[in-house]
Inverse folding.
């Protein structure tokens, strides 16, 4: 199918034009939806079309159902206020615009109160395939649909509350690993095999294919303590993907008090991204050939 030519801005484009917007105490800003250019809306539409085609057979059913419920397929960058009006009656969550990443304590407070902070800027044309910092496509397309699922919505709120406690215990690094390997890069068992649910995968058409179909990465059954001990990489595909049994089980695991888990983790050795542990339930042992070729 022919690809429409991209709409271009005539002037050089800032990577994040919201960077210097006035912030409220909770780091939220005015999305100023009317200010998006035709080029920015066009960029969203092309990212959406490409990712949606890839995810049609790879995303978990809960994600695909939520996409239809929220009608994210409507053309152009979503207005977060209108999106929240659809989301809130379903699970009580809202989407609030921010300039970029917010401090940990602010982030956890938002999640604990069922507010998801989403970056308002959209990636520039030069970074369509990979962007290190999260933009509106990653945050809205990748994260928001599952917030319409009641079980996943409960898990995310529990994670926010857990983050506040982890900061007090000095265990934030461990909790961040849980977020990375589930919310961002998680896989889930489904009736017809493994499916995607992590936003970092969902918002990358190339990693959506790699995570499920490449022989390179390990795929390991999710274990809370194991995940909290595992380092991760931020500038490439993942060397190990963790597979949850269900969102109900993930919620159950993360609604508990982590105090005893943190006690057990203190002094525990760190597992590197490419390593398998003796206790792992390995679903797919990877060849790591993709990563070996990078060295």
């Amino acid at each position: 199918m022919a690809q429409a030519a991209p709409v271009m801005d005539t002037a050089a484009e800032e990577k994040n034009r919201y960077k210097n917007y006035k912030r409220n105490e909770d780091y939220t800003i005015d999305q100023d939806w009317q200010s998006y250019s035709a080029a920015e809306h066009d960029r969203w539409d092309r990212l959406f079309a490409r990712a949606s085609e890839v995810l049609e057979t790879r995303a978990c059913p809960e994600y695909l159902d939520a996409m239809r419920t929220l009608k994210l397929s409507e053309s152009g960058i979503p207005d977060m206020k209108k999106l929240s009006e659809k989301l809130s009656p379903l699970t009580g969550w809202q989407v609030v615009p921010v300039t970029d990443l917010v401090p940990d304590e602010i982030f956890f407070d938002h999640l604990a109160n069922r507010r998801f902070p989403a970056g308002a800027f959209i990636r520039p044309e030069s970074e369509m395939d990979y962007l290190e910092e999260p933009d509106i496509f990653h945050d809205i397309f990748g994260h928001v649909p599952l917030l319409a699922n009641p079980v996943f919505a409960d898990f995310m709120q529990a994670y926010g509350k857990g983050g506040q406690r982890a900061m007090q215990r000095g265990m934030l690094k461990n909790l961040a690993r849980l977020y990375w390997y589930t919310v961002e890069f998680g896989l889930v068992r489904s009736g017809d095999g493994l499916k995607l649910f992590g936003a970092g995968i969902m918002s990358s058409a190339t990693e959506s294919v790699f995570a499920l179909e490449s022989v390179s990465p390990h795929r390991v059954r999710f274990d809370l303590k194991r995940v909290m001990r595992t380092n991760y990489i931020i500038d490439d595909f993942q060397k190990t993907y963790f597979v949850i049994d269900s969102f109900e089980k993930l919620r159950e695991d993360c609604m508990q008090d982590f105090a005893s888990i943190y006690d057990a983790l203190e002094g525990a050795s760190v597992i590197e991204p490419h390593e398998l542990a003796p206790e792992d339930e390995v679903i797919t042992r990877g060849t790591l050939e993709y990563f070996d070729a990078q060295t």
User: Anything to note?
Assistant: The first strand starts at residue 94 and ends at 98. The beta strands are 94-98, 115-119, 187-190, 193-196, 218-221, 240-244, 282-284. The chain is about 45% helix and 10% strand. Confidence is low (pLDDT under 50) at residues 1-12.
